[in-house]
Amino acid sequence: MKRRLFIAGNWKLNKTAAETTETVADLKAKLADFNGSLDVALFPPFLSIAAGQAAAAGSPIGIGAQNVHFAESGAYTGELSAAMLKEAGIELVIIGHSERRQYFGETNETVNLRTKAALAAGIKPFVCIGETLEEREGGNMESVLKAQIVEGFADITAEQMTNLVVAYEPVWAIGTGVTASPEQAQDTHAYIRSEFAALYGQEVADKVIIQYGGSVKPANVAELMSCEDIDGALVGGASLKADDFSALILNAAALS
To answer: Is 181 assigned to a binding site?
Structure first.
């Protein structure tokens, strides 16, 4: 079965509130004739979220957050809880991005806790998994991904699995200009889906949306999205310009 595509843009540490207003308004205009055949979202920095929400009003563009803490409250300076995000009208959140794992000590365990907190608050998590080049070349790709899945999704129910998105991002392809070939990406996505089938059964696994992330561009998105087990993209650099991101969205939508 082919699932509904979800194209999302992760802005990382880019764009002030004013820049967000300008870019989202431009994107909204460029998507005026968009047929709505796939889902679209942007994840700006925290302080630009409100500007993004205001600019995206009346459009199909969802606005989400790049992180959430697992505690409801407490001595966690600089963090935001799921309840805080929910009150701010946020219904989407990225969890466990490779940069969070690399620079801020995220682990499979904390990814699991954050995912549970988001789900409990009614926020859809975009849970990131992926291997480094060293792990892939060392023949450890499958063991790394399996650990991220088994530990990162521990105690997540089958029903909850249909209310989240999995984003596979090979770390070696993020921001490098290097993209996994469609064959590589499909093979890895198929493996990921097989691991979810082992945990939840094939019926549930067939419903899980698994995005690909890693130097996705307007020129390669259609080929990637044509793969059976790729259900969308978590886009970095190409989402920062309305021209590029709208072209990417429309190229993907042409497949739907």
So the answer is: no
Boundaries of domain holding 226: 6-253
Number of domains the chain contains: 1
pLDDT the model gives residue 172: 79
- Report pLDDT digits (tens) over 94-107: 999 999 999 999 99
Q: Is 91 a catalytic residue?
A: no
CA–CA gap between residue 228 and residue 63 (Å, rounded): 27
Catalytic one of 131, 169, 189, 195: 169
- The CATH number that applies at residue 130 is 3.20.20.70
Q: Is residue 169 annotated as a catalytic residue, yes or no?
A: yes
Using alpha carbons, select from 67, 145, 135 the residue that is nearest to residue 105: 67
Rounded CA gap, 212 and 214, in Å?
A: 7
Question: Hey, how many other C-beta atoms are within 10 angstroms of the C-beta on 249?
Answer: 26
